[in-house]
Amino acid sequence: MTAAARCLSGVHNMDADPIIRIENLSYQYPRSPAFVLRDVNLNVQRGEFLGIVGPTGAGKTTLCLALNGIVPQFYGGRFFGHVTVAGLDTIENRIYELAQHVTLVFQDPETQLIANSVQDEVAFGLENFQVARSEMPQRIQWALEAVRLKGMLHRHPSELSGGEKQRLAIAAALAVQPDVLVLDEPTSQLDPLGKQEVFATIRELNERLGITVILASHASEELAEFADRVALLDQGQLVSLDTPERIFSGRDLLARHAVRPPQVTEFYIELARQGLEPPSIPVTLQEATAAYEQMRDKIAVCACPAAEALPPPSEPPLLSAHDVHYTYGDGTRALRHVTLDIHQGEYVVIVGQNGAGKTTLAKHFLHLLEPQAGEVHLAGRDVRTLAVSDIAQTIGFVAQNPDQQIFSTTVASEVSFALQSLGTRGPELEARVAESLQTMGLTDLRDRHPLSLAQGDRARVVIAAALAMRPDVLIFDEPTTGQDYNGAKRILDVSRRFHQAGKTVIVITHHLYLMPGYAQRVVVMGRGVVLGDLPLRQAFHSSELLRSTYLAAPQIVRLAQYISAREQVPLPILTPKELAACLRLRRTSP
Amino acid sequence: MAATKEPRGEERSVERVGGATIGGAPIAYIIVWGAALAVLSFVPMPVSAILGIGGTFPISQALYALVGMILGPTAGALAAGIGRLIGIFTAPHTAAAGIPSMVIAMVWAAAGGILVQKRSRAWIVALVVFALAYVAYVGRALTVDVSPGLALQTTLTNLSGIILWLLPTRILAREWISDQGAAKLTAGLALGCWIVNACGHTFANALLYYLNPWPANIWRILIPIIPAEQLFRTIVGAVVGVGVISGLRAIGLPKPAQAGY
Amino acid sequence: MTWRRFGSVGESRFGRLDFRSKLMVMAAATALAFLWESPTLNGLLTLSVLGLCLLARIRLSYLSHVLRLMLPFYVLLLLTHGIWNTNVGRTVLWTAPQGWWLIGGSIQLTLEGLVYGLMIIFRTLTLVLVIPLVVLTSSLDELIVGLVRIRVPYKVAFVFSATLRFVPLLLQEIQTITEAQRLRGLALEKMNLLQRLRVYSRIAVPLLLGAMTKSQQLDTVLAAKAFSGSPDRTYLHEHTMGTADRLVVVLGVAAIATALALRATTGIGGFQLPGW
To answer: Is the pLDDT of residue B199 over 50?
Structure first.
């Protein structure tokens, strides 16, 4: 009986001998009044691929840590219920014992690698478990082969890409030969290529080697495709546990718990609202195209929003790069022949895989770097003649990691930091700080230490600090990485407000699918070169272009392209809602 | 959503095991402090005293006292030692005494940790060590044509450290550092850093002077320089200390067992 | 941040010695440098260490880089001892001519002073060079296993290895933090000493707090890999002492003992002008 079949038959926790048994689990961290997990009941079958979804703060990480005893043995706190892993209770057995059966892969690729070479990283766990030296080399080889990192034994982790780092972490977790591999948001810090690599690896481990996988993630599309079951967690409670089909098609359920369904699912739910109900709501692209085929005779495609051309710019550009070249000290050629103009009032998104040169370009605009050839201009002046601190008054920069931009002991002093450096004092300073705090909804938090706030709030503090200088341009560097859907939307909404006030916004990201409704123009970069500069709608449908920089067109675009090919009608849509709006119930001729 | 109803599951008795620690501090803290100190040894302070052994001195030197106060004596010494060692082979000119430089950093940090311990006799051992170091330092100087008067003038700062270590000012510093108010914390750090820096400097010079007994005229030149260096180190230590400790308290990161804050 | 990139090139007989023997070499060299005040002996010691560095195929560019960095300090050493070392200075070599501003007639260079300064240069060179000699010629796992073999607790050796791993990361953090400060309007170029002092402190605080916050994850990761710091573990890498190693250790101990004895009894090793 396959794992999937076993799951489906025993979907409601009534099977024999699950590898993990969670019974009425509740947990409270020490010195914290709230319960992070409440009455969770869940059994995991051998060989199963279980996905865990839920908003940030739902307790996904705590649940993962409860599987090998770290919760509660590492922290203390109050623990209720029973968790049994491979027959071992997680309170009565040491973490040392449990960790041989359940290994963990964490979200941050950097801090989870602790050794100075790939080989040593994989060996570390084996050494801790006192595996005989004679056995280690073959186990290491096996693990590295399973994740396709063979031949990199002596590389230093800093030489690996994000996807490779996570695969290394998986190999290290695998070498121990555990029963269960638990991954806590392993791809949220990665670019699309890395994400793809990691999911492919995990899928292979589950299908080929039969390893039980538990994966907490926001990546709905991937989970829908690979998971046998999905658990929806919110505020510490297991809201629902079911097949991906049933979880992801439950629109109200997902909306209530701030989980984003796969785009094709969103599309079919919209369609169902219009009276075009498919036999079952698809959750993967394959199911979506199959469902379309089934319903084809009932559907008529009508006019679709055409790709609007952007209005031609009237004035000279605000930011301009002309034939810029830049090579880093270690020889990386970050920018080559980059020419780009950005005008006042535009909202531009720069996409490309890691290493494409996006952040390097932004740093040129800010005069943190100087081009080795070519020129960069701000409002007509060469940036080389401007001091960084002066440019900072015109261009606000919000870096990817807010913690690197926090220097003060209170939120208010953080926001006023820059203004004070520039000489603003007294009532004017007060007024501007209050204004900034107000805009970002931080007035109540003004006396708190910024680092004591939640991740999302810290990001807002940094934005408030940048806004305090009343810049004309805001550059956001990867604002959506590591955020859940709502968190990402909140930050993008701030950018939209700023844009609607007539300012210029540049967003650097690889989450293209989040940009409809915000950006108008897309600059595609790859390997230091500008590969394309198009209106948003066109960019979404330029599959070749996106593929050349290892980006995938959003799922809904691929469905639209399929339908478009079938019906021979162009469908340059951006979102599931737009696609649904293009389709109508075909009227049988009177 | 109200979370007042009792959990359904049976409450279990939990014994907190925690992770691996050295000297009461989580290993991860030691690792990152060591790395931070190693990296900060590249960031030079704007004041340089190329006399004595050691070129422009890096910010990390001002932080040895602090790492001991935050991590505890053993953990602090380990972090300081490793940070220094890595600094040595990446930038050898900042530690012209090689391995002894590493030992100096460790003693310095240990002193910081010992200063803030409540129930420990280690301070007596430290006092003896520093007193002996002072005697060795000045003693050697006297055998190479440095007059006692000059020696005293130049080592006023060092003496102040040892005296303040002996007197209850040590306890005062410790209590102020553990005070939750910002003003007392700052004062405590300033006083504590002064004491630890002066004693650490004494130990350092005892070793360095043995390697390079600088002549009497240099002693004269050092009369204003040593207090100035000491002042800079103490100010930097206090400013960084206030920032870090108030940050640690605000974030609520777990406190090492032998921390002083 | 691999070793190889630093200063060492490829394999060498010296490099193949066990780490413990290399530690012995370092201990002996350090002890002798401390013990001896004789310019001849210290000079020979430095030359030997330098020779070993070359034998161990440490890159010449690294060695010259170190020397270049130490040069200003060495010049100062020579001058301070040459001019002001009244303890040993007897033979005047050169007096600043009367006409010179400020120092005319009063500054004198003594032979003994200069030689003493030279001796100290040799001393510090030995101490500085012996560390890369030992550290750069060993791979990291040799270092770890070697330390454990001399009874350093594994926890400590691990902290060293992990610290090394995180140094490049923190280096990058510092750069990002500095950039972020510049973007908040901080103009380092326009600041005076005291202001700059505050700024340097401002770089250290976010670096340390950020590092400590991130380290929380590290502790969890270590726990998940069953790392308790316990000494019960196996090692992937194995390093044993061979005959050459034992020889080196014996020689090292003998050297220190002999030098001590000689110095105590006959005063050999004390400062004296060399015959040459």
So the answer is: yes
Q: Are C89 and C41 in contact (CB under 8 A)?
A: no
Taking only residues 138 to 167 of chain B, the set having a beta carbon closer than 8 angstroms to any beta carbon of chain C reads 144-145
CB nearest B7 (choices: A34, A38, A94): A38
Which residue from C169, C206, C235 is facing A406, i.e. has the nearest CB? C206
**Among candidates B123, B106, C49, C228, which has minimal Cα distance to A73?**
C228
The residue with tokens 């706190």 is A77
Interface of A with C in 450-509 (CB under 8 A): 451, 465, 469
Q: How far apart are CA C14 and CA C30, in angstroms?
A: 18
Q: Is B20 on the interface with A (CB under 8 A)?
A: no
In angstroms, what separates the C-alpha of B38 from chain A's closest C-alpha? 17
B214 and C83 within 8 Å at the Cβ level: the answer is: no
ipTM beyond cut 0.95 = no
Give the separation between CA A399 and CA A315, rounded to whole angstroms: 29
The verdict on residue B16 lying in a domain is: no
If pLDDT is split at 50, 70 and 90, which confidence band does A505 have?
Answer: very high
At B15-32, the pLDDT tens digits run 888 889 999 999 999 999
Residues of C in contact with B81 (CB under 8 A): none
SS3 A138: helix
3-state secondary structure A352-401: CCCCCCHHHHHHHHCCCCCCCEEEEEECCEEHHHCCHHHHHHHEEEECCC
Domains and CATH numbers, chain A: 3-261 (3.40.50.300), 267-305+555-585 (no CATH), 319-540 (3.40.50.300)
- For chain B, the domain total comes to 1
* Chains interfacing with B (3 or more CB pairs < 8 Å): A, C
Asked if the model's pLDDT at residue B51 lies above 50, the reply is no
Residue C90, min C-alpha distance to chain A (Å): 52
Q: Are A175 and A122 in contact (CB under 8 A)?
A: yes
CB count in 10 Å sphere of residue C57: 18
Q: Is residue B257 part of a domain?
A: no
Q: Pick from A580, A517, A579, A523: which is nearest to A551 by CA?
A: A523
* Contact criterion met (CB < 8 Å) for A452 and B251: yes
Give me the domain span that covers residue B101.
Answer: 21-250
| pLDDT tens track for A3-12 | 555 445 444 4
Q: Are A139 and A177 in contact (CB under 8 A)?
A: yes
Task: Give CA angle at B171 (B167, B176), nearest 5°.
Answer: 135
pLDDT at A364 over 90: yes
Instruction: For residues C96-100, give the mean pLDDT.
Output: 70
**Residue B2 contacts A where some CB pair is shorter than 8 Å:** no
Q: Mean pLDDT highest for which of A267-271, A301-305, B97-101, C133-137? A: A267-271
Is residue B170 helix, strand or coil? helix
Confidence of residue A213 (pLDDT cuts 50, 70, 90): very high
Asked whether A412 and A433 are in contact (CB, 8 A), the reply is yes
Per-chain mean pLDDT for chain C: 82
Better pLDDT: C96 or A65: A65
Chain centroid to Cα A497, Å, comes to 23
Do the Cβ atoms of C159 and B63 come within 8 Å?
no
Radius of gyration of chain C (CA): 24
Residue with tokens 């070249």: A325
Domain presence at residue B231 = yes
**Rounded to two decimals, what is the model's pTM?**
0.90
Question: What residue ranges do the domains of chain C occupy?
Answer: 3-149+242-266, 154-224
Chains in contact with A via at least 3 Cβ–Cβ pairs below 8 Å: B, C
The residues near C76 (Cβ < 8 Å, ≥ 6 apart) are B50, B51
Determine, for residues B9 and A80 on separate chains, whether the beta-carbon distance falls below 8 Å. yes
* B18 at interface of A, judged by CB pairs closer than 8 A: yes
Scanning B207-246 for CB atoms below 8 A from A yields 243, 246
